[in-house]
Write a structure and sequence with these properties.
There is one protein chain. This protein has 167 residues and is α+β, with helices and mostly antiparallel strands. Helices cover 38% and strands 26% of the residues. The protein has seven helices and seven strands. The longest helix has 12 residues.
Length: 167
């Protein structure tokens, strides 16, 4: 079942993000990795900034989460993770499809440039990489990330964004 996460889901969201992120240890640059990948205060800050998490629940426990955040004229997909032992079972695709059905604005997704598995997942689900010029402009406009992270990240967009921007 997919459902909107509540305040009392915080610990599960935190655990899923940090467990799911283990797939990227050694993939993303070492100077961008921390342990845990996302500290509790960073997750609290993301939620306070308007990231709303949806979760895939099975047997009364969350198995995957995906956040979305409306920023100006777009929606950002944020922090999409599935528990390691539940990956490749369609949970991420189901969450992404669900979130896409909720929004009426172009959707952007940022991820690490070397996270090829994530990039392939998003491309398989209808997103396309934007060119470097647009990537830099989009990261500066819609995200608050350090310059080093901007250097080693990519942005993917849905068809609605490409239709509006002609690129």
């Amino acid at each position: 079942m997919i459902r909107l996460c509540a305040k009392d889901d915080f610990d599960q969201i935190y655990s899923i993000i940090n467990d799911g992120a283990l797939a990227y240890r050694g993939v993303i640059p070492e100077d961008c990795w921390s342990d845990p990948y996302m500290p509790r205060h960073e997750l609290q800050n993301e939620i306070a900034a308007g990231v709303k998490f949806w979760g895939w629940e099975q047997d009364r426990a969350l198995r995957g989460v995906m956040g979305w955040q409306r920023v100006q004229d777009v929606v950002l997909i944020r922090h999409a993770y599935v528990l390691t032992d539940k990956q490749r079972q369609g949970i991420g695709a189901s969450l992404l499809t669900h979130l896409r059905g909720l929004v009426d604005a172009p959707i952007l997704i940022g991820t690490w440039a070397d996270a090829l598995r994530a990039i392939c997942f998003y491309e398989k689900n209808g997103f396309q990489l934007v060119n470097r010029e647009h990537k830099d402009r989009l990261l500066k406009r819609y995200w608050r990330v350090p310059s080093r992270q901007m250097e080693v990240s990519v942005v993917l967009a849905d068809k609605a964004w490409f239709d509006l921007n002609g690129t």
